[in-house]
């Protein structure tokens, strides 16, 4: 891995940048392996549309902003589209497998770059373990329908092993698997939407799309059956709306494997954000409208959220649709975990080839050109998290241990790190263009849009931590997430300063291996 820090340097780029395509002793990924559709499959699957809808919408409706839940998704679409403007502008200049790590390094320096490289690794690593918990929970429920009971731990580990095998192969295999899963998710949700739209007793209201209602909760009330229902807090609905997009930001990590990264990565960002936004808004609107009144929808969401979507689709489309949707929850969790796995592997690979982490992580398979060692390492990390969770919490209660514990807590930890990284990268974009591409500074794309994005991410983080007790399901680990986030960032900065003193050559390479130059 040792190399001259000036070899392959690009003219007009960030000082010290090295075009990895010109360096012979660096293992490269499978260049030009995927097109626009492939990158979309790799990233949109991370957002997991069916999981986002079936898991998040009931909480947003039942405990958040009630009829304003669809408006929350509309608001999130606008904010994340604005974030994507600056993010896409940066992607056109910096094509690197490091994503946040590379962008922040070029904009705000190597210390913060490495800090958020480490934060990104932790986030995507725990995301895979989180989805394994969700997969295990629903797999356990599905087998229970047939009178079988297998410990959730074995389902979680089985998913991890399956992802390990598939991700070891060429990235085209991942594209195929994730593409099939994503198409299935979208189709069944479209069945739900069209069935609701054509239902005679659907209760569509324009109030659901009024942005003002995204910022309104609702008072406690009694259901038609006389049950006491809790009040809703708008902050809950807004947070779960933003949470539903986590995964779209992974597009830059596949720049080196795409056929035309300067075009494909920015385009995939806008397609995924806007496309998911329209889809999420429509589907959540159909979900609230599938009930006679919004009070009925809230009652169902609070009392039986697992069937919030399943009962309406069975009523309006048929039992076959309900059955398919119940199975697609499993494939969605698997595909989502696989998407996060691939991204984490590429972060490990990026830091490995730059010498920050062990050099072997930066190697690629001779035949598949996949980051096979980094991928296997991530599988081991995910398995360790799963096993530790089982040892600490036990394996006899899938709801509390696999779903609320492993799935819920790891998702919170990972989401908080991603939101912090998105806020910081917004600042990095502004600074980067001012320092290195002053002629390309645009009042909106590289100035106002990142400012709006930073403020929005800060607000969402406030929503997260101000409601951490609810979001954490009452589990004590949730109260320590903020300190864990801070420790990870501080550790990354400390490692960078140590490298600057002890290994200056490695320090100089932090975030500086790019692909095809920065000035193209």
- What form results from the Cα inertia axes? globular
User: What is the CATH T-level topology?
Assistant: Amino acid/polyamine transporter I
Number of strands: 4
Average pLDDT level: 89
N to C succession of SSEs = EHHHHHHHEEHHHHHHHHHHHE
Share of residues in strands: under 5%
Total domain modules: 1
Name the CATH superfamily classification.
Amino acid/polyamine transporter I
Structural class: mainly alpha
State the CATH class: Mainly Alpha
**How far is the first residue's CA from the last residue's CA?**
26 Å
Rg, alpha carbons: 22 Å
Counting DSSP H or I runs of 4 or more residues, the number of helices is 18
Which ranges are low-confidence, i.e. pLDDT below 50, for 5 or more consecutive residues?
1-12
Largest sheet: 2 strands, parallel
Helix share bin: 55-70%
The side-by-side strand order for the widest beta sheet comes to 1-4
The CATH architecture classification is Up-down Bundle
